[in-house]
Each structure stands twice: as structure tokens, then as C-alpha cells.
Design brief:
globular; DNA-binding; about 5% strand; mainly alpha
DNA sequence: CCCGTGACGCCAC
DNA sequence: AGTGGCGCCACGG
């Protein structure tokens, strides 16, 4: 294959990395970007998630920002959804923040 | 082809 | 701890 340079491949790589996040753990955008081989381009991860096709089975809710908070706006309905999904996995929220020292995917 | 926008991160104040 | 600004890359108009 001559240079598999397809942005789709990048996205796939990101999704694949996110799928590896263990149950009850979370990962930051920067962390995913790094593990996916994209360097520190965290924005790409967020964009890839936004561009993720509906129906794809990826634990998008386990991806949060470096502050340990949900990057979505509280106005967005997905904010509460993400929080609920995480709490359902045993991830504890303190105010609107997650203790990364405790729940960050150790990888 | 130029410009604005974004599910981010880091640094300065 | 909160706010503002810059960088970085991809995509739609």
C-alpha cells in the first residue's frame, strides 16, 4: 500500500485507541492523541469524535479534558449523558471534576 | 484558496 | 482559581 495517507485512517486510529480504554477508567484528549500517534494534537481527537459515524460502538464518554472535566457545554444534552455513563461505571465526580490521579487510564 | 470554527492544551497574568 | 491568548490541525462555506 503506497502511503496510507487517509484522514479516515487517522480517525480510525483514534477510535481504536478510545475503544481500548478500560471500563471505569477515563483518558484525556491529549492522551488519546499521543497513543494514537498524532502527537499532542488533542483537538484532532475531539474532532474525530464529533465526526464519528452514528452506530459505531466506542466509549466516547471516557474521554475528558486535561482538567478532568467534561469538555461539552452543560447546555448540551450530551453533557449529562456522559456524566451519567461515567458514574454508572463507578467514576466519581467532585463538583464537575474527575480525579485523574484515581481514574486516569494508566497508559 | 482564504476564513471562521472547534468534544483541546499550555502558559501568562 | 478564573480569564484571556496563542498554537495546531482538519473541515465546511
Amino acid at each position: 500500500m503506497a502511503g496510507g495517507t487517509g484522514s479516515s485512517e487517522k480517525y480510525f486510529r483514534i477510535w481504536e485507541t478510545i475503544m481500548k480504554i478500560p471500563h471505569g477508567k477515563v483518558a484525556t484528549y491529549g492522551q488519546i492523541a499521543r497513543l494514537a500517534g498524532l502527537g499532542n494534537h488533542a483537538r484532532m481527537v475531539g474532532y474525530a469524535l464529533h465526526a464519528s459515524p452514528p452506530g459505531i460502538n466506542i466509549p466516547w464518554h471516557r474521554v475528558i479534558n486535561s482538567q478532568g472535566k467534561i469538555s461539552l457545554s452543560k447546555e448540551d444534552g450530551r453533557y449529562d449523558l456522559q456524566r451519567s455513563l461515567l458514574e454508572d461505571e463507578g467514576v466519581e465526580f467532585i463538583r464537575e471534576r474527575i480525579n485523574l490521579k484515581k481514574y486516569r487510564w494508566d497508559k
